[in-house]
Each structure stands twice: as structure tokens, then as C-alpha cells.
């Protein structure tokens, strides 16, 4: 990979990872993990997230109520809370480590090995952040689909549907994994930075040429 394209790929990777981290934080607090449309009252839409349940009314806006107990939540929502916290934390650490490993950052410019390690560690953190973001939304989506098609439930019982927050979470995980992959790909690229030996040889050649010009009559 040419030196010109390497900073561009690194910048693309860090921006994708930043976008994924922001979307992951947004997914954590959005109340639209599940949606429920009542046939008896089509003017109301019930939504459920990790922290609260809301009812959306066309005339009165949105009214939300926080969950009273963590232990009273379904298992998929309890585990999803923990995993999304891990995803947000790992993503933040990945931004810090990979940020100091970028070539465009002049700090530690002469310690390329250390910068490579920071970049590699940051990319791996983005991978783990993306996986821990995809896992909970996929689990909630799987359980919602199972409950929706459960034949044991009477047809008159309202059924939850997939919410918008699940799709935001999938997009967040994809951006985090892709951003971490781009950052790690730049580590394997060849560096075109001149070595100190090259500088020394060039300097000696310039001194010899300068002496030759002075000794000529």
C-alpha cells in the first residue's frame, strides 16, 4: 500500500469506527427496540427499549415510563444492557488507542513500532465492540420473531415487532468491524519512510561533493 493511501485508509477507518460508536451509544438509549401496534387503537404505538417503555400518540406526542426493576426485565433485555455497555466502553477505548497510532499524528513519530501496536490494539477493540453490539440486537430480534410466530398465542393477543433501534445497532456493529478492519489492514502495509541510515549516507555524499567542489582549482 502506497504511503499516500495509508493515511487515507486510516482516516476512513477511524471515521467509520467513530460513526459506529456513536450509533452504538444511540442504540443503547433508543426506546424503539420493540414496537407494538394495537388494532383496537391504531392511533397509539407502544415501544420498548432497554430502559423504558413508551406510547406514541398522534395527538399527545410520546409518553415514557422507566422500568422499575432490572431483575423484572426479560433475560434478553438484561443481557443486552450489559453487552451494550461493554460495546460503548470498548469503542471508546478503541478510539483512544487507535487515535494515538495514526500516522497523521506527530506524537511518537519516531516510535513506529509502538504506534503500530496502538493501532492494532485499537482495531481489535473495535472488532470486539462491533461484536458486542451485534449480539444483543440479534438476540432481541430472534426472540421477537419467535414470539411473533408463536402458534400457541391466540390471534387476538397483540404481538411485538422489530423496532428501529435494532437496525441502528446492526449498522453500528458493521461500521465498527469495518473500521477496525481498515485500521488493521494499514499495519500490514509497507512503510516508505526513509531510514536513519539513508539519511546518514545522503548526508555523507553531500559533504563529499561539497569538499570536491572546494578543492577544485
TrEMBL record:
<dbReference type="GO" id="GO:0005886">
    <property type="term" value="C:plasma membrane"/>
</dbReference>
<keyword id="KW-0812">Transmembrane</keyword>
<feature type="transmembrane region" description="Helical">
    <location>
        <begin position="79"/>
        <end position="97"/>
    </location>
</feature>
<dbReference type="InterPro" id="IPR006187">
    <property type="entry name" value="Claudin"/>
</dbReference>
<dbReference type="InterPro" id="IPR017974">
    <property type="entry name" value="Claudin_CS"/>
</dbReference>
<feature type="transmembrane region" description="Helical">
    <location>
        <begin position="118"/>
        <end position="142"/>
    </location>
</feature>
<keyword id="KW-1003">Cell membrane</keyword>
<comment type="function">
    <text>Claudins function as major constituents of the tight junction complexes that regulate the permeability of epithelia.</text>
</comment>
<dbReference type="GO" id="GO:0005198">
    <property type="term" value="F:structural molecule activity"/>
</dbReference>
<protein>
    <recommendedName>
        <fullName>Claudin</fullName>
    </recommendedName>
</protein>
<keyword id="KW-0965">Cell junction</keyword>
<dbReference type="InterPro" id="IPR004031">
    <property type="entry name" value="PMP22/EMP/MP20/Claudin"/>
</dbReference>
<keyword id="KW-0472">Membrane</keyword>
<keyword id="KW-0796">Tight junction</keyword>
<dbReference type="GO" id="GO:0005923">
    <property type="term" value="C:bicellular tight junction"/>
</dbReference>
<comment type="similarity">
    <text>Belongs to the claudin family.</text>
</comment>
<feature type="transmembrane region" description="Helical">
    <location>
        <begin position="162"/>
        <end position="183"/>
    </location>
</feature>
<keyword id="KW-1133">Transmembrane helix</keyword>
<dbReference type="Pfam" id="PF00822">
    <property type="entry name" value="PMP22_Claudin"/>
</dbReference>
Amino acid at each position: 500500500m502506497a504511503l499516500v493511501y495509508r493515511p487515507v485508509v486510516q482516516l476512513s477507518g477511524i471515521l467509520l469506527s467513530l460513526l459506529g460508536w456513536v450509533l452504538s451509544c444511540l442504540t443503547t438509549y433508543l426506546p424503539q427496540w420493540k414496537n407494538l401496534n394495537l388494532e383496537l387503537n391504531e392511533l397509539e404505538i407502544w415501544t420498548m427499549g432497554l430502559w423504558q417503555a413508551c406510547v406514541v400518540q398522534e395527538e399527545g406526542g410520546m409518553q415514557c415510563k422507566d422500568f422499575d426493576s432490572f431483575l423484572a426485565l426479560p433475560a434478553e433485555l438484561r443481557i443486552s444492557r450489559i453487552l451494550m455497555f461493554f460495546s460503548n466502553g470498548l469503542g471508546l477505548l478503541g478510539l483512544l488507542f487507535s487515535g494515538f497510532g495514526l500516522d497523521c499524528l506527530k506524537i511518537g513519530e519516531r516510535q513506529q513500532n509502538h504506534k503500530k501496536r496502538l493501532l492494532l490494539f485499537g482495531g481489535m477493540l473495535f472488532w470486539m465492540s462491533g461484536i458486542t453490539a451485534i449480539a444483543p440486537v440479534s438476540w432481541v430480534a430472534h426472540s421477537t420473531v419467535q414470539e411473533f410466530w408463536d402458534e400457541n398465542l391466540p390471534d387476538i393477543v397483540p404481538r411485538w415487532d422489530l423496532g428501529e433501534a435494532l437496525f441502528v445497532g446492526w449498522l453500528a456493529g458493521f461500521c465498527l468491524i469495518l473500521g477496525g478492519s481498515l485500521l488493521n489492514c494499514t499495519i500490514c502495509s509497507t512503510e516508505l519512510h526513509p531510514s536513519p541510515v539513508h539519511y546518514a549516507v545522503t548526508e555523507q555524499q553531500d559533504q563529499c561533493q561539497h569538499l570536491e567542489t572546494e578543492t577544485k582549482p
